[in-house]
Amino acid sequence: MVVNSQEDSLTSYLSLANDDAISLIKKKEYNQKAFSIIINQPNDSMNKVNLFKVANRYYNMNNWKGYKETVYLVLENSISSKDLENMAKGYTYLGDYYSSQAISDSAFMYYSKAEKMYRPLRDNYNLAKTLLNKALLQYNEGDFSGSEIEAFSALRVIKGEKASEVLYDSNNLLGIVYNEREEYDKAIEFHTKALASINDTLIPAVFQSKATSLNNLGFVYQNMNKHKQAKSYFQDGLRQEKLKNDKPFIYAMLLDNLAYSKFKLKEWDQLPDLFYKSLRLRDSLQLTAGIITNKIHLAEYFAYKKDTIKALKFSNEALIIARNSKNYRNVLASLKQLAVIEPQKAADYTKQYIHINDSLQKAERKMGNKFTRIEYETDQIKSENTDLVEQNRNLVYIFSGLAILGLFIFVIKTQKAKNRELLFKQQQQKANEEIYNLMISQQNTIEGIRIKEKKRVAQELHDGVLGRMFGIRMNLDSLNKIHDGTAVEKRNNYLKELKSIEQDIREISHDLNREKSELINNFVAILDNLLEEQKKTFKPKLFTSIDRTIKWELLSNSIKINLYRIIQESLQNINKYAEANTIKVELKKIEDDLFLTISDDGNGFDVNKSKKGIGLQNIQSRTIECNGTVDIKSKKGNGTIITIAVPFENKQILT
After folding, report:
1. Whether this model's pTM surpasses 0.70
2. Other CB atoms within 10 Å distance of the CB of residue 643
3. Residue 644 three-state SS
4. Is the dihedral of CA 359, 365, 366, 371 positive or negative?
5. Which of 617, 604, 531 is nearest to 571 (CA)?
6. Are strands 541-546 and 582-590 parallel, antiparallel or unpaired?
7. What is the pLDDT of residues 560-609, one digit of tens each?
């Protein structure tokens, strides 16, 4: 048997480059020698395998430049030879590189490219691992919904296959995601599934996985303030064999969590020694995030023990480390702790907390949107892959044609449905205007009769009663010529009384005949009826402010109907869901715009996460019909404010 000396050297160099017993410089030299041999070999499957081995060794040495250059080379070779399997592997390696450099959007892009390659290859195991990598990226960037979707996709891909490692990691990640979203029952469910999926033959470090799951389960119960259950899980995790030596970072985490639960249970034995033991271990391992958490826990412990000096020391240290490492979630935790320890500075800490929290939420939303855009853009790779699989071209054409035909039919049906919906809306609008016009007509008829009756009464008083009273006064006045002291006195008294009656009747006549400038038009009267019904029927106190100086008759009936319906819809939503104590409705005109503001102090909701119900959709569509804008501000527990601005084209409303 002839031994190929070059192949023998390559194997030796690769082995030495992975030997932890020699120095990092020597390992790098051996890896470079292996690369020099591989680069001169033909571009075949074995060449790519060896290049990936070189890349792996660079990865283990944290030599990111060498790792990146090697992966780009093997990817270029794979593309030139149309090697789909190694192309997918190359994209995965690039995803790992950018993930290690904390460049999440680039990492997500390459993982997405790898995903699109693995699907036609039906490589379910690597596809599931890639989906899981995407889910981890999304979780780290605060995109919990996206992470949840990708983790479930990974579980669907490996369903029925022997892939306990992926099964464990997916369930474990789902448990962590639900814990972050405070859905604790679901978190416990998936952490329990992760623990049950551990298989001694398929998962190498069983003790590590068990300790991790036990810690995570304990952490969920800790967040639920069930510290007795949490403590038992942490203690079970610490009992796992080899944990302290082989996975000291998990061991340190369990120590810290156990100490915190014992503190919450007021079990003072081993405290604060457990905290310090965990902190020393994390310091030795340079685990920044763990060190911050440890110091925050120590600050809380000493604050409870009234040792303000130590509490401030650990809180400030945690804040400094968190800021230097740009760990903004721990910055928030440190600020929150400092506000408790130093109440005199609570306002300043709270201001910083709000500012950082708002910035963090904006960054998370931005990254979530970026992930979505990358997902969309990488879908184009599907069409590129079909060119590499020539034997499926005709089948793709057939399916594409059927899809287009189905899409065409769907578009036609959708358009017909939209036309029917539009016709229905037009008919509904017309019916609403007719109903409103009938209401206006009825109000006008009643108002006309009322005014006519007022004028009749005024005329009757003026021409009839006042005339007769005036005659009596004249007759009595003529009797004054009779010089009888008693008679004169009586006549003067009668005259005074008659003059008083005459003045009263004259004032009544003038009041009845005068047009009051403050009379409200019919629209406001109808609106007042709605608001009065709200006050009588429902519990919340209603405060209203309606500008009654506006000439509503110059506003089109269509806008009046929509404004009335918007107020009606908003009140219904508040009555159903808000559990509010007070409601405010304000309708005013500023320059050429009419502003409607409806606010309540009820439950509120998350405007960004909540799905818009039919009520909110109706409000938006009606505002659009008025060429207006709507702004909805709400937070859970802080009520809701709806502000609608309707423009008045050609100055339809004048004051």
Report:
1. no
2. 15
3. strand
4. positive
5. 531
6. parallel
7. 888 888 998 899 889 888 899 999 999 988 888 889 999 999 998 888 76
